[in-house]
Amino acid sequence: MAEDARVIVIGGGIGGLAAAAALHQRGRAVTVLERAPALKPVGAAISLAPNALRALDVLGIGEEIRDLAAWQGDGGLRTPGGRWLSRSNAEAAAARFGGPLVLLPRAVLVDRLAALLPPGAVRTGTPATLTDPGDRDRPARVRAGAEELEAGLVVGADGVGSRVRAALFPAHPGPAYAGFTTWRVLVPLPGTDFAPHETWGRGHIWGTQPLRDGRVYAYGAARVPAGEHAPDDEKAELLRRYGDWHHPVPAVLAAARPEDVLRHDVHHLGRPLPAYHAGRTALLGDAAHAMPPTLGQGGNQAIEDAVVLAHHGGDLPSYTADRLPRTTALARRAVRVARLNMAGSRAVVAVRNTAVTALSLAGPALLLRGFDGIADWRPPYASGRHHAGKP
Questions:
Q1: How many other C-beta atoms lie within 10 A of the C-beta of residue 362?
Q2: pTM (2 decimals)?
């Protein structure tokens, strides 16, 4: 095998698998090295906006993912007491952005991306270390267990705590605590009728969203010091914080078992990287531009990164030039949204809610306006497999 044609992807999450699939379709020999013993994604579900679905069109799986869309009818923003601040609906979202918003279990997307790769391309239980990023005259080198591997391209897709990023940019301060923690649950909730929503309280948010398979994905976030954990269990913590919020929050909490609740502090890259590559090594997803989840774009941007990286091939400066401005702007926007929806002052919350309601009445729903300039992104090249009528 010519080492220039070989690609090593470090990290088998959504971004790493999408990059591997895109590069494989471009004729590269791809190996994915994942330290976990199995491709078990972190987190319960992922929201895919039309921008990410168009990127998945490039990989040939956009249509089947769109078929999993579950949002029907009204949705929007609420207060903990149940009052609607802003209303929107699936038809308006599709009309505004040229496609639906799709929520699905992360495991479904991981499995579908992995299926695009040839047998043996993914090696689980394999911690990997970048030992040399390479340059024009020599390949990049990766240590995987007792092996030393060479490649024409290494892709660091190893998440917010990326060791590849630290090797490429040792002077960068790395991730910082975003000021809040998150909880996520994925539970069956038969016979419970509700409109999809996100609810903004004082220093707290909650979201409840239906999935196509009949389960419900719910998430909460709260402003707390980093590293805190519940004195008993995280379900009990959710009951203390959200147990008296509007329907269907109590029903979701009643259906959840303590072991169903995932909790993670949120970290982001407060300082942008100077580039998304060095030598023959590129970064993507959270390794390159970890951002707060307030726009729901972390995984979406990783999928965009993947198809753009494959498009540029070995031209990593062009990849950086293409991706760094967009993702830096979105990361900053996500921080601004977090300051708004996680506001803790009673006075600020009152002003925020009044402004949200007024803006919603004055034009398209705030929840949809927040995706302008995000969800309308299109891949830089056509694959011939894009969504019908959306080249």
A1: 8
A2: 0.93
CA distance 8 to 18: 13
CB 19 within 8 A of CB 104: no
E-only strand ranges, 281-330: 281-283
DSSP code for 116: T
SS3 of 166-199: the string is: HHHCCCCCCCEEEEEEEEEEEEECCCCCCCCEEE
Report the b/e string of 221-257 with b at 16+ CB within 10 A. Answer: bbbbeeeeebeeebbebbbebbeebbebbebbbebbe
Q: Tens digits of per-residue pLDDT, 67-89?
A: 887 766 678 899 999 999 988 87
User: Which token pair is 383?
Assistant: 């694959």
Closest CA to 383 of 310, 303, 291: 310
Encode 25-37 in three state secondary structure.
HCCCEEEEECCCC
Residue 212: the pLDDT is 84
- In this predicted structure, what is the pLDDT of residue 386? 40
| Averaged pLDDT of the chain | 91
